[in-house]
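Illustration: Organoarsenical effux MFS transporter ArsJ.
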Amino acid sequence: MDQGLRNYLVVTGGYWAFTITDGAIRMLVVLYFHLLGYSPFEVAMLFLFYEFFGIVTNLVGGWLGARIGLNLTMHIGMGLQVVALLLLTVPDPWLSVVYVMFAQALSGIAKDLNKMSAKASVKTMVKDGGESKLFKWVAVLTGSKNALKGGGYFVGAALLELIGFRGALAVLAAMLLLVLIVTAVLLPSGLGKMKSKPKFTQVFSNIAAINWLSAARFFLFGSRDVWFVVGLPVFLYEVLQWSFTQVGGYLAIWIIGYGIVQASVPRLVKRSHHGQGPGGGTARLWAFLLALFPIAIATGLQLGWPADYVLVIGLILFGVVFAINSAVHSYLILAYSDHEKVAMSVGFYYMANAGGRLLGTVLSGLVYQLDGLSGCLWWSAGFVLVAALLSFGLPEIKQKVAAQQL
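Result:
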């Protein structure tokens, strides 16, 4: 087997295992702490450090990966996630807001170290000029990850009902520790490590395309999390009176479907005749299309249409178009980056991603508490439109992106 393909499969397998725990722990925290009597805004605050430290981690993580190797940063992330899972197994009286926020901070650092490492390493496995293979490999990695994150949501909700909060956390921690050991043995050392030691100031991109894409990514992911993190699961549980398993099952199906679509994007999005992947025009088109869906769903809810049908059908359609947007962005950040600095470029880009998730998470609890789920969806529509407008700064891949340095 080709060495690049072998490394890609190992990285993907490790990323899959981590992603299941990431989805499960989020579902466990949302449902269990809502059950303990936390308000929607208080539940959202539990994820504040998770998202905030994701910003810091992506900023520092890309620089760290370039210095010590992406395989090492990926395994540090796995180890931190094991610790974060075990920290939440303490008795209920210990689970104060501050304590849980600290555990979630570790989980946020772990998640973004793992994601940055896995995605940046793909660039190192594809030779220059292999844009078609790069687009396909990134789409498969990202799409399969999101499908498994959906599975993690279901696993978390199901384990909560079957063996309780602490039993679920212990099972997830043991599984991830085993995967950490296996991938550490199989992956070569120094993956993605730069020949020269980069300065920390180099983490800030001086390529215009990457800055525009990062800004668009900020609002794109804010548009999802503003309704997805707290508003939707609480609405399904409280207003529609779904069970934990039903809530987790729907969110799982949504994310799995989103991941399947994302992995299929290279076949859905037409490539140019020169073997290039999508460019700025593709990103703009799909962003404007995405804005139509939260507007339609919010309008349907406000007109009093059956909420279950409006949400189930409307958010599935939103997920399909959102997946295409996300896959195009995930390809563009690697296409706009060069091999030598890919870890830092991806770290900077996912710092913006984490920033959008942070804002979306906070607004998800706050806006839901003030204006309900329809209010969250109107905020979502506004965020998508901003992302679409920012995408006018994105060039086509055939252009010399590096020449557009600021």
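Reading the tokens back as a structure: Confidence is low (pLDDT under 50) at residues 399-406.
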